[in-house]
Amino acid sequence: MPTTLSFADFSMSRAASELRYDNAYLIYDRTGQVIQEARGHFTNFKVTSATPNESTFLSDEGSFGLQLGSCRFISDKADASLESFGSSCKRYFDIVAELLDIRMFTRVGLRVITKKTTKDKEEAKALLRSLHLANLPSTMRFGASEDPEEIMFRWESSQIGALIRLKAETTTVDVILPPELELSMSNIHRSVTGLTLDVDYYTVAPVERSQWDATAWITQSMRFIKKETTSILGG
Amino acid sequence: MADTVIEFPAAQEFSKVAPPLSETFFLRRATSVNSPTGPISITGLRTSGSKAYRVIEIDKLYPATEGTIAEVSKAIGLLADAVGFLDRARLCIENSPLQADRELQHVQQLLPALFVCRKIGDGFASVVNSLQFAFINLHGQLLSKAQVTAIWRILKELRSKPFLSFDQSLGLVAELEDANLKVDPEVLAKLIEDE
Question: B159: nearest CA in chain A?
């Protein structure tokens, strides 16, 4: 009997939204203006790196990327419905599209990475296997293992596409603390094991700026992702 | 005695070395999640950008899903209904003006609901407001076929680009005026005359 899961069984780890467009050469003249505008819209907005072709920024809301052919907003503390994430995306993308005079997006994407923690990696692999997503008999493959620890599906039409990836994995975080802090511990080591659910929902056909609004699209896409993912996972 | 000449080995032709098979390494780009605060190791696949020329269909971008509360989805549905009524009105306006009038009354009834969705944007609100006044200023008079076609075209355009800017909306409003529709409140004209 296959295990059933739903999107609600996973907790949000990272959300990212990205716009791709034909090279916006106004980036060479107006990155400063983008920064100046964004400073007024986000808390503790800081420039982490700035080069002619690519700049990155950081704020309390999340991190930002600006490139010649794309821009993105990423948050590690996104709300479950992505409403506040969507509103941050709207503020940032509106600034970029306006100042770089972008009228057409070649691709609009929303990527959501969620995780369901387990005791160890074996439990995560067992959970993935019990979902019965891949119709493969359990036998040694490539001399590596009997069951896959990662499963990916992609659906794509001429208009819209989606990629779903499930992986049993351990994520480790190693931080060496500066001695100036004079803390009892000198480093932080943390590893999280579980099943990662990574969904990328994106447009294939070009999107006109007058067709798209970050807040409306992101929140609606998130509902769609939840519904479709839950149906795939059998929940 | 001459030194033994040792021939220097010919340089290897590195250019002839076969390049690694690109199929082994995925170059398909997914939506990037790499944050400047630290890359995340699980970004595996990358899909290429779009090369299609036709813009996306609005119904694909905002699919009607159960429990949708987004104003844009509501507006897209209402606009689809309005375009349907106008389609039928265009077909029968010459042979059956009464039937056409009935269809146009349905369109007019949808306008208040579209007005409620004006938060979508200034451009959207401007077109809906202009249409409201265009119908009010007709005082029950039947539209001509050219006027029905103009409204039909504008609503189709609004449906495919609901987030148009205010400046873009002015072009659509001008089309209504070109079709001899009065898009401003009559009281406004009187106030201007009084001044």
Answer: A211
**pTM, 2 dp:** 0.83
Residues A206, B57: C-beta atoms closer than 8 Å = no
Q: How far is CA A179 from CA A68, A186, A189, B38, in A?
A: 40, 7, 16, 22
Amino acid at B10: A
For residue range A144-156, list pLDDT tens digits in order: 999 899 999 999 9
Please count the structural domains in chain A.
1
CATH 3.30.420 given to domain B71-194: no
Non-local CB neighbours of B65 within 8 Å, separated by 6+ positions: A220, A223, A224, A227, B73
Structure confidence at residue B191 (pLDDT):
73
Q: Say if the Cβ atoms of A211 and B52 lie within 8 Å.
A: no
Q: Is residue A169 part of a domain?
A: yes
| Total CB pairs under 8 A between chain A and B | 144
Q: Is residue A9 classed exposed, middle or buried when 0-12, 13-18 and 19+ CB atoms within 10 A define those classes?
A: middle
Prediction ipTM score: 0.86
